[in-house]
């Protein structure tokens, strides 16, 4: 643990469109997230929370302000540098799983490791270890079409963890699941948090958000904690 936030946003502004149809998505957002913190981001549709998550995940740029990830500014990164930073620091979990249908669970989990210096055996070993952690090692050679929604999300979580990221970003990770499966996935996130993972989760569900350490409300492009 360090004294510095794992994430620090300072007066972030983001607009879309031209002068005549300008949409102000973020309007002076400042936010700090400490190492090992579990934060839920909530807000109505159009509030700016998805834009905020995209900027945090270095998937989108911003007009002005400063973003420090692990005390390092991400401003002005090239596409290649941004991709390398994401692979080194960040794990993503999405509502729609984003698994490749023609790959097995093991191959999907190992995919981010192809951009590292690890050899094939080490990649498969680490991927299998992550599948075991989420309770799916017995489904390693099944394709997504052979898995339930909850199992696909577990594979997606294993894939997010396999690069040993500093922070995990989850975008509505329980949105496509029934209440029972949603509870199982949240229990898995809580286990990750207990192990020291930093987690930032966007969710519409108050029962999901209330299980985080802290809730950040976004309204009209501003943070209202």
Describe this structure in a few short sentences.
The protein has one domain: P-loop containing nucleotide triphosphate hydrolases (Rossmann fold), CATH 3.40.50.300. The chain is 32% helix and 25% strand.
Describe the structure.
By secondary structure, the chain is an alpha/beta fold. The protein has a single domain, classed as P-loop containing nucleotide triphosphate hydrolases (Rossmann fold, 3-Layer(aba) Sandwich). It has seven helices and ten strands. The protein has a six-stranded mixed β-sheet with strand order 6-7-8-3-9-10, with helices on both faces. Strand 9 (about 215-220) and strand 10 (about 220-225) form a beta hairpin. The protein is globular and about 50 Å long. The two termini are about 25 Å apart. The model has no long low-confidence stretch (mean pLDDT about 90).
List the helices and strands and how they pair.
Layout: E1 7-16, E2 23-33, E3 38-42, H1 49-56, E4 64-69, E5 72-73, H2 79-89, E6 90-94, H3 105-110, H4 120-133, H5 149-161, E7 167-171, H6 179-194, E8 198-202, H7 206-209, E9 214-219, E10 222-223
What features would you highlight for this structure?
single chain, 225 residues, alpha/beta, Rossmann fold, 32% helix
Q: Provide the CATH top-level class.
A: Alpha Beta
- Give the integer mean of the pLDDT values: 91
The 3D shape can be described as globular
CA gyration radius, whole angstroms? 18 Å
Within CATH, the superfamily carries the name P-loop containing nucleotide triphosphate hydrolases
- In angstroms, what separates the terminal alpha carbons? 24 Å
Our count of helices gives 7
Instruction: List the domain count as a whole number.
Output: 1
Q: State the major sheet.
A: 6 strands, mixed
For the largest sheet, list the strands in their spatial order. 6-7-8-3-9-10
Helix coverage percent: 25-40%
CATH architecture descriptor: 3-Layer(aba) Sandwich
Q: What share of the residues does DSSP label as strand, in percent?
A: 25-35%
What is CATH's topology name?
Rossmann fold
Report the structural category: alpha/beta
Which H/E pattern describes the elements? EEEHEEHEHHHEHEHEE
Instruction: Detail the poorly predicted runs.
Output: none
**What's the β-strand tally?**
10
């Amino acid at each position: 643990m360090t004294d510095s936030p794992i994430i620090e946003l300072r007066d972030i502004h983001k607009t879309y469109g031209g002068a005549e149809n300008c949409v102000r998505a973020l309007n002076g957002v400042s936010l700090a997230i400490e190492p090992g913190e579990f934060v839920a981001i909530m807000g109505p549709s159009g509030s700016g929370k998805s834009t905020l998550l995209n900027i945090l995940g270095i998937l989108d740029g911003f007009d002005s302000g400063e973003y420090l990830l692990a005390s390092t500014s991400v401003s002005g990164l090239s596409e290649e540098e941004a991709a390398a930073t994401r692979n080194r620091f960040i794990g993503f979990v999405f509502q729609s799983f984003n698994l490749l249908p023609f790959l097995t669970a093991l191959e999907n989990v190992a995919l981010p490791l192809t951009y590292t210096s690890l050899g094939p055996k080490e990649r498969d070993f680490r991927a299998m270890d992550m599948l075991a952690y989420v309770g799916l090692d017995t489904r390693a050679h099944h394709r997504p079409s052979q898995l339930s929604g909850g199992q696909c999300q577990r594979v997606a979580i294993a894939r997010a963890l396999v690069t040993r990221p500093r922070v995990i970003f989850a975008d509505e990770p329980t949105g496509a699941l029934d209440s029972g499966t949603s509870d199982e996935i949240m229990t898995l996130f809580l286990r990750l948090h207990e192990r020291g993972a930093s987690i930032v989760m966007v969710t519409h569900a108050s029962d999901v958000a209330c299980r985080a350490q802290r809730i950040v409300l976004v309204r009209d492009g501003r943070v209202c904690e």
